[in-house]
Amino acid sequence: MTDTDIKIELNDLYFFYGARPILSDIRASFKAHKLTAVVGPSGQGKSTLLSVFNRLWEEIPEAHLKGEVKISLDGRWLDVNGDGFPIERLRRKVAMVFQDPNPLPMSIYKNVAFPLKLAGMKDKAIIEAKVCGALQQAFLWEEVKDRLGEDARTLSGGQQQRLCIARTLVTKPEILLLDEPTASLDARACDVIENLLKTLKPHCTIIMVSHYMDQVRRVADCVMELTQGSLQHCDGIMNLDAS
User: Which of 84, 149, 154, 232 has the fewest CB neighbours in a 10 Å radius?
Assistant: First the structure.
């Protein structure tokens, strides 16, 4: 394996809520342009693990972290917790999609354009091209192209989740974090998103928390199990039992 095969490295990682340890002495690497599924019993810290990649954990009172989170961004290895690393840039490059769709109270178009506006982009033609491209990449363009001015909250649950994915894709993230992205969706919407994720791997590295072992078998290239604060590679996806 060459250095270009690895996108993320965790070294001697510990995470605490107050004095309570959640993650302990984690050492792991994540392959570039692969979908890694993180599995394990509920309450073991899987969502917390996702938060260390883009420092969302910093929003949690009394949380603190020790250790190293190294990510290759723009072809350079960086410690994301190092002094001077811009948090806004990190969260554009390492984007997050949550379990429940969270469209903003604005139009479909403005939802997807919002991250570009936050980044200071003003050219309307460029913004429009990027919004359309992200909606196409998220398998949503054909369903919304004639209603871009409508409130995004009128979309179905599955459409809202794809909209949230489009909103992350519009800034061309290098890493996509997914926290049980299909848990609140019906089987049909779930199938669409699973197929979508397979198409995204050439464009970004994906880390997904999932409780559904059938889903993991369908979409994951690598599987890691988090239990009792320890993260371990699982060699046999087909032999995993549901947790």
Answer: 84
CA distance linking residue 192 with residue 214, whole number of Å: 15
Q: Provide the token pair at 92.
A: 């554009």
Q: Does residue 239 form part of some domain?
A: no
Judge contact between 220 and 37, C-beta under 8 A.
Answer: yes
What is the rounded CA–CA span in Å between residue 76 and residue 74? 6
- 3 state DSSP class of 142: helix
CATH of the domain at 44: 3.40.50.300
Residue 223 is encoded by which pair of tokens?
Answer: 């599987």
Using CA atoms, how far apart are residues 172 and 35, in angstroms rounded to an integer? 17
Confirm whether 241 is domain-assigned: no
Does the pTM of the predicted model rise above 0.90? yes
Sequential pLDDT tens for the chain (243 residues): 345 699 999 999 999 999 999 999 999 999 999 999 999 988 889 999 999 999 999 988 899 999 999 999 998 999 998 877 788 889 999 999 999 999 999 999 999 999 999 999 999 999 999 999 999 999 999 999 999 999 999 999 999 999 999 999 999 999 999 999 999 899 999 999 999 999 999 999 999 999 999 999 999 999 999 988 889 988 665 454 444
* Residue count of the chain: 243
